[in-house]
From TrEMBL:
It holds the Pfam family ROH1-like. The chain crosses the membrane at residues 255-278. The keyword Transmembrane applies. This is Uncharacterized protein. It is found in: Membrane. Belongs to the ROH1 family. Signal peptide: none annotated. Residues 185-199 have a biased composition (Polar residues). The keyword Membrane applies. Residues 183-208 are annotated as: Disordered. One of its GO terms (cellular component) is membrane. It comes from Acacia crassicarpa (northern wattle). Its main location: membrane.
Length: 406
């Protein structure tokens, strides 16, 4: 059962709670073993590990508190998504350092099994990164169409019918390119009919043309197979992701805590990317089951709930992505489209002023995408590279274990 952010509002678990729980479990475990005569307490060579684990939990909490403090208008903006990826990259490096410093524990049960599960999740996350980069390329194509609209309607002494027709063609292509993958053919045809007051005799032609346009947009770049599904990939990453039990906490000297934490962060970041960016067969039906002992659970689940609420809004349900700038494209181009269709040329001064206002909105989102897409793409690429590095490190550690066993 998924716990919601409200479950954590009245609780403030201390960062030391988990460390105390581990120490208590370890003492109980040692006492039981000693009473049974099957083991004797030994000095723990990893005396600083508990402090490192508590420090890591605090860093995760601080990062997600910061991410959750953003206002609703800036949630899932280009800058916020980049901040999320920055947080992942930072925490991932801290995670790798801890594993490297305690690699002797990593190659022993049960940590070796947990690491194998994480490595499998990593491989699936790499696919998501590739799909997201395809989606960023798709948004770049939308930005090029926005530029055509601006070239047609900006810096003109007066906006004539010819300029509007040129802008209109780009607006139609943009609207079709931004159609949701799951829209039926009937829905495509219905949306096409809204593009022009004089389209009644050309519906069939428009349907075929726009269906080809939509297919063209999605074939511009594709790093995943045709039957690949972002929704299924997220479910696979989250499959059997459960908080560690007492015995595993003791046997892993607490490393199970940060492996579960990093696995949860990996799932959340991939989920947020799929929520924000166009990709094949998007779906957000992932559940996060995080015990209240994790101090970062409340801010993470708070962000999760807010994104889910956004996805359920009527105007966002059929969106290709929840990125703030995508919503801005949808809104300002729709209003510009409707305004132009309802106007007679030559334009009266009031109508021309309204169109220029909408064009200014188009210009703002065009500039935001022009400045923000390349940095976002670099961040996704860096996340990909960091995951690959951790794969190499993890496989190397587990490979040495297998070599010694053989």
């Amino acid at each position: 059962m998924r716990m919601s952010a409200t479950d954590f509002q009245n609780s403030s678990p201390s960062l030391a709670h988990f460390g105390r729980a581990i120490r208590s479990l370890r003492r109980d475990h040692i006492q039981v073993l000693s009473m049974e005569g099957s083991a004797t307490p030994q000095h723990n060579p990893n005396s600083n590990l508990e402090q490192e684990l508590e420090s890591f939990q605090k860093q995760v909490t601080d990062k997600f508190l910061d991410l959750s403090s953003v206002g609703q208008d800036d949630l899932l903006s280009l800058s916020w998504v980049r901040k999320l990826l920055d947080s992942f990259i930072y925490l991932h490096e801290e995670f790798r350092y801890i594993l490297h410093d305690h690699r002797a524990l990593v190659s022993k049960p049960p940590v070796d099994r947990m690491m194998t599960d994480l490595l499998e999740r990593n491989v699936k996350a790499l696919d998501v990164c590739n799909a997201i980069r395809d989606g960023i390329d798709e948004i770049r194509q939308w930005d090029k169409l926005l530029e055509i609209v601006l070239c047609a309607l900006s810096n003109q002494k007066s906006i004539g019918e010819g300029q509007y027709r040129r802008a209109k063609k780009a607006l139609i292509e943009l609207s079709i390119g931004m159609l949701d993958d799951r829209d039926s053919n009937a829905s495509v045809a219905q949306k096409n009919r809204s593009f022009s007051r004089n389209s009644a005799g050309r519906d069939h032609h428009h349907h075929n043309h726009h269906h080809r346009l939509a297919s063209h947009f999605r074939s511009l770049s594709c790093s995943v197979s045709r039957n690949w599904s972002a929704a299924k990939q997220l479910l696979a990453i989250g499959n059997n992701l459960n908080a560690p039990r007492g015995n595993d906490l003791v046997a892993s000297n607490g490393l199970a805590v940060i492996i579960f934490t990093m696995s949860s962060i990996l799932l959340f970041v991939m989920w947020a990317l799929v929520a924000a960016i166009p990709c094949q067969d998007r779906g957000l039906l992932v559940q996060f089951s995080i015990p209240r002992t994790f101090s970062w659970a409340a801010p993470l689940l708070s962000i999760y709930e807010r994104i889910m609420d956004e996805s359920k809004k009527r105007e966002r349900r059929n969106s290709r992505g929840l990125l703030k700038e995508i919503h801005q494209i949808e809104k300002c181009t729709r209003l510009l489209n409707e305004l132009g269709d309802s106007s007679r040329f030559p334009l009266v001064e009031e109508k021309e002023g309204e169109i220029r206002h909408r064009v200014q909105e188009v210009s703002q989102v065009f500039e935001a995408l022009k400045d923000g897409l390349d940095p976002l793409d670099r961040h996704v690429r860096e996340v990909f590279q960091k995951i690959v590095q951790s794969q190499t490190q993890g496989l190397d550690t587990l490979g040495r274990l297998n070599h010694h066993e053989s």
